Amino acid sequence: MTKSELFVSVVFVADNCVEKLRNLIEEVSPYLDMRYSDYEIVVIDQKSSDATENEMDKLLSTYQSIRYLRLAQKVSNDVALAAGIENAIGDFVVVLNVETDKKELIEKFVEMGRLGTDIVIGTSTKITSVSYRCLRILSNRLLKSIGYTLPSNSTGSFCLSRRAVNAITESGRFYCKLHMRMANTGYSIGALNYDISQDEVKRRTVSQGLAETFHHMVFNSTKPLRWMSAVGILGSGLSLMFSLYSLLINIFHNQVAEGWTTIVVFMSLLFMLLFTMLSFFGEYLARLLDDRSEHKEYNVVFEKNSSVMINENRQNVIDDSVQTNINLSQTGRDK
User: Fold this and answer.
1) 75: Cβ–Cβ under 8 A, 6 or more apart, which residues?
2) In b/e form, how buried is each residue of 320-334, taking b as 16+ CB within 10 angstroms?
3) CB neighbour class for 304 (10 Å; exposed up to 12, middle 13-18, buried from 19)
4) Rounded CA separation 19/65 (Å)
5) How much is the pTM?
6) pLDDT of 270-326, one tens digit each?
7) CATH tag for 4-128+151-202+299-305 (out of 3.40.50.300, 1.10.443.10, 3.30.70.20, 3.90.550.10)
């Protein structure tokens, strides 16, 4: 098999999954070595409390081109993914889910990227329940209103070309806005649908869907804040109307107790609106504090690299001046 001249980076985020991580690296490393002249495996360890560090020491002395970065503390999934993307140096960066993905996905992701899709999102309908899919219809409409256009039913795996990586990471604090940055790079976005074994699926729940939608909307747009302002104006208008209604009842019927039930219902509604608005305002205040903070989103305790030497007989030249496999993403040495 002729090896591709592309440099492929494969990123794993590990969180107390030592056995699955070891098995996947043992499969992926020879798989990459057969297909690509240059590659790397980047492991981001979420400060796992199992034997991940000891197992990685063994793998580093067995397989080549592995980089192991252990974080100082467990961070959100977006931040961990950002750490992997920032530290990867390949022409294409493939992020795989340690729990569910197989090695064959790498070539499929890279091939779609090479054919011109700079951002390839892995999707599968098996990761969501029926109730989640019903909620997703409303969620998609809300997210599209703020410019979020990534494919639905994402498995968490994706592939980015080098220019897409540069566009995402080139400015600002993108950690909480990783997926929105992916949606708004301007580069082509595609979906790679694949099957996941039912035994390995952790279905997303309605509560997870609500939390994801809330997170994306608050941290990527000010529209929800304006919606809450509109709700506040509406609540104020309803309160004024009810005050006039109470005044008229008092003038014409002189029986104040008659509207007691209505008062209780209306006050409950107003308090519900009030606390809903306060929750949004609190999230935006947290967002402002995070944006103004100078602390790093993640800290690397240490980085370890493979001690196995790569092919010492390889020359640092390419065989042909013109490659037959054109890279339409315009990254790498075979563009």
Assistant:
1) 46, 83, 297, 298
2) eeebeeebebebbeb
3) middle
4) 20
5) 0.73
6) 777 777 777 777 777 766 766 665 556 677 887 888 877 666 665 555 555 555 666
7) 3.90.550.10
